[in-house]
Amino acid sequence: MSPGGPAQEAREPCAAGNRTEGALEPGPPWLGRRVVLGVCGGIAAYKSIQIARDLTLHGATVDVVLTKAARRFVAPLAFEGVTGRGPLIDLFAVGGAALHVGLGRDADCVCVAPATADFLARAASGRASDLLGTVLTACEAPAVFAPAMNDRMFAHPRTRANLALLDAAPGYHRVGPDTGRLAAGEGSGPGRMADPSAIVDAVGRALHPRGALSGATVLVTSGPTREPLDAVRFVANRSSGKMGHALARAARLRGAGVVLVTGPSGVTAPFGVEVVRVETALEMRDAVMEAIGDVDVAVHAAAVTDFRPSAPRRDKLKRESAGGEVAVRMVANPDIAAESAARMKPGAISVGFALETTDLVERAAGKLAAKGFDLIAANPAGEPDAGFEADTNRVTILDRDGRRSALPLMTKSAAAWKILDAVEERLRGGEGS
Ligand code: C5P
Q: CB count, 10 Å around CB of 402?
């Protein structure tokens, strides 16, 4: 199985609570694709209902296949309620003789979540003793396995050997398991099924055809920076990190290895992304400079605070001692994007952002040239449905050859996808759309 698996084992389990609703809209790489979701008999099966729902909301046609044991944990009707399609259970149903062949042949991805120790053993030896096993063996599309089991079962040498076999199989991908709370009375340990959102993203990654970003290394900066004024106060801006995080997620879905350097943001980091958390512009510069020489693409979506207090106080400035007025001397922060454009390897692509209240596109064109970007995404400030904090954005993409593409209002996830379309085109040396 390919990356996304073993690296996930080390990931701290991650709540998906503050994903924006935009992240669940129909769109690539799920839209119009057929996914078979195999559910095995483990307590994590209750979370598979959410996986089925989210894949459906993303625009996939989801056929759920329940093993006999899975039906002891979750009812078929629950899956029908979220997918609009009746789950499939019986290999030997009358009238469904070739069901397994059709499902396997037509699937763009088979996802097994939870994949129990028993199912992994059967998959590793190519068993086709039930509907799910036969679908898997009849399928040439990629498969994603989300193992879930007791920590002792996960540690068992046979389970490890089966996983090693599956990990080595081309087209097979693994997500998790995480370390965390197991079934009641079993405490915590490795074996908990990966978060449903991580599994949905792993399916998206498996569905996306190999493109110019597959295997590329992408650095994304995101969020604001905070510049300390004193021990408790800071200067910052309204950036939420939604655009940068959407770009990091989209790059990961397109097969890139992603480093996300982010200032303070309440948005959950995308799954499978290396996250470097920073606070100030100087910290962001250090993190970016450390990585920049090795990346194929850098996307500077962070709203770096342009000025910082020149001498932040170590203590808290007291109202009584300040009198009625406080003067703060500010110095300019380094321009991280401009500095890093010059340090990138030949052929690497640098993407900037411009957020302006007036003369947006003209100013963006000026920044594109001045900062050495290949592309710049211009987005308006001061509109309620675009720019800072909103879930949507209105982006114009400009490139260094003078092309301009004004996109309509769309969610930040959709805008991120479009920006990466433009990046891929340049990586391929394309002529533009
Ligand atoms: O000049 P302005 O701040 O509008 O530039 C916007 C672009 O430059 C963004 O891509 C932003 O991330 C980047 N930038 C930077 N370091 C700064 C200021 C801006 O990397 N100090």
A: 9
Q: Give the active site residues.
A: 237
Cβ–ligand 1 distance for 354 under 6 Å, the answer: yes
* Closest to 190 in 3D by CA, of 199, 203, 200, 178: 178
C-alpha 301 – ligand 1 centre gap (Å): 8
CA distances from 149 to 34, 185, 217, 389 (A): 27, 14, 33, 40
Options 3.30.70.1230, 3.40.50.1950, 3.40.50.720, 3.40.630.10; CATH for 23-207 is 3.40.50.1950
Q: Determine the residue of 304, 344, 355 to mutate for testing ligand 1's pocket, defined as the one with the most ligand atoms within 8 A of the Cβ atom.
A: 304
- Total-model pTM: 0.92
d(CA 94, CA 191): 37
Domain regions of the chain by residue span:
23-207, 211-429
Q: Is the minimum distance from the CB of 335 to ligand 1 under 6 angstroms?
A: yes
Q: Rounded to the nearest 5 degrees, what angle is found at the Cα of 225, between the Cα atoms of 221 and 228?
A: 155
Q: Which atom of ligand 1 is nearest to the CA of 302?
A: 12
pLDDT in tens, 170-228: 999 999 999 999 888 888 999 999 999 999 999 999 999 999 999 999 999 999 999 99
The pLDDT tens digits for 50-63 are: 999 999 999 999 99
Whether 376 is in the pocket of ligand 1, judged by its Cβ within 6 Å, is: no
pLDDT of res. 94: 66
Same fold: 23-207 with 211-429: yes
Question: CATH code for 211-429?
Answer: 3.40.50.10300
Using alpha carbons, select from 329, 302, 301 the residue that is nearest to residue 236: 302
Q: What is the pLDDT of residue 185?
A: 86
